[in-house]
Design brief:
nine-stranded mixed sheet; about 25% strand; D-Amino Acid Oxidase, Chain A, domain 2; alpha/beta; eight-stranded mixed sheet; 12 helices; 2 domains; FAD/NAD(P)-binding domain
């Protein structure tokens, strides 16, 4: 015999996005009867695999404004909770080997729009660099804003002595750093529960009707029928699947990306190093024997070809800790999130080889990662243009918040705030429609996105 419960709003998904939607529904929109539905514990699927970074550096000004607002909200939470979310801000260090990276600088001004004139500082060779603040402190409250473009190799060597000596340009994005995604989620969950919201541990099997909706939820104790006036699809990798239950085809795919974390026993990565990204592509070095083995498998054979840039590395954990995280989102093949995770056993070796081009001291770990190292991955649920989908669905009373490929943790707050505003019918930021499904009707805006040199995937 099934059990029946009613709610004002059912949020499907209890990852960072679902929790944030529910958080702002109760905090800003004053809803009380909100239910989160997920077959797993909160924050235990894709959100558990987050790189836990944030940045306001994006290919398009809409995404820059979106993440700037999200960082504002993260800073509010950090201030209100005595920094329970462990927010730091040493920035992002984007590294290149072009002596005069005019394309990068031009692109940078486009990313920051009209504010770029005030936010971008160029440090050329032989200049006075007194305005440049090295990333000594992790405190977000006192960190600089804007971007420092460092073209003086002497300044690069002094500030980042462990980088390879062929680095000739650095874009040091200052409004960027790290947070604890898990603590952010738990902070939100505490507020949701205190306001009367609840979590139902179960899988949504079917959705019928429209405002009110009838959700069939399968739990360990049997079926529950949930009657909801409104529904929010925040199902992460199951975003498209839940959309299909409403008879809608959401234009997203799921791409599996991987990371490694390990104890840096030899101190290869300084603890005060910013999140560092090698922008340049490269061809990995392999011995003849290794090349022969890799060539036997079509998947690994791709590692013999020229590879994209974007290898990233940062110290992880406490200031006095030893752990390091590395990632490289070179996979572009979409897969079914319901199938077995397509883990690539070669990935740890590949990312170390690639990363050691910029961080030579990492060569120590190639083929001999310390015991207890962690190789993990998660799905980037993404639109082709790599903008999220936040706002109303075609079905009356249904809303969505998803397609945050690799930036779910950093954009969770603003995504939840915007989606909650859509649900509550309150004021939206000027860019909200550009992040909703209505953008596909704006041919000029879509053409602008298509013309970009990058989609911002890291």
């Amino acid at each position: 015999m099934s059990k029946s419960i009613s709610t004002e709003i059912a949020v499907i998904g209890a990852g960072s996005i679902g929790l944030s939607v529910a958080y702002y529904l109760v905090k800003d929109q004053r809803f009380r009867n909100v239910i989160l539905i997920d077959p797993l514990d909160p924050m235990s699927l894709t959100s558990a695999q987050s790189g836990e970074n944030y940045r306001n550096w994006w290919p398009h000004p809409v995404m820059t404004a979106f993440t700037n607002d999200g960082i504002d909200l993260l800073e509010n939470i950090a201030a209100e909770t005595d920094n329970r979310i462990n927010m730091t801000r040493r920035g992002y260090s984007l590294v290149a080997r072009n002596s005069i990276p005019e394309d990068l600088i031009k692109d940078l001004y486009h990313r920051y729009g009209q504010e770029g004139q005030h936010l971008i500082r160029i440090h050329e060779a032989g200049g006075n660099h007194s305005s440049y603040v090295a990333p000594v402190s992790a405190a977000w409250e006192t960190a600089p804003t804007g971007v420092d473009v460092i073209l003086d190799q002497d300044l690069i060597r002094r500030t980042f002595p462990t980088y390879a000596h062929d680095v000739s340009a650095i874009l040091h994005v200052r409004r960027a750093g790290s947070i604890s995604g898990q603590q952010l989620g738990m902070t939100m969950l505490d507020t949701i529960r205190a306001a009367g919201g609840q979590v139902v541990r179960g899988k949504v099997k079917a959705i019928e009707g429209a405002s009110p909706f009838n959700l069939t939820v399968e739990t360990a104790d049997g079926r529950i029928d949930v009657v909801a006036e409104r529904v929010v699809n925040a199902a992460g990798p199951m975003f498209k699947e839940v959309g299909a239950m409403l008879g809608e085809d959401i234009p997203v795919s799921c791409v599996y990306q991987q990371k490694i974390a390990f104890e840096d026993r030899y101190g290869a990565i300084p603890r005060n190093m910013p999140f560092t990204i090698d922008l340049d592509g490269q061809q990995l070095f392999w011995t003849d024997e290794e090349r022969e083995i890799l060539a036997e498998d079509p998947v690994t054979a791709k590692l013999l070809e020229p590879m994209v840039g974007g290898i990233h590395c940062r110290p992880d954990g406490a200031e006095n800790g030893k752990w390091v995280k590395m990632g490289w989102a070179y996979n572009t093949r979409a897969t079914d999130p319901n199938a077995e995770e397509p883990v690539d056993a070669q990935f740890p070796d590949s990312v170390l080889r690639a990363g050691s081009r910029l961080h030579p001291a990492l060569k120590t770990y190639i083929g001999r990662l310390p015991r207890g190292s962690h190789h993990y991955g998660g799905y980037y649920t993404m639109t082709e243009e790599n903008l999220p989908l936040i706002g109303p669905m075609k079905t009356k009373g249904a809303f969505m918040a998803g397609a945050l490929s690799g930036f779910g943790t950093m954009a969770a707050t603003i995504t939840g705030s915007i989606c909650a505003a859509w649900v509550g019918g309150t004021e939206l930021p000027a860019y909200a429609h550009a992040l909703s499904a209505s953008r596909y009707e704006d041919k000029e805006f879509m053409a602008e996105l298509t013309a970009l040199n990058s989609t911002g995937v890291l």
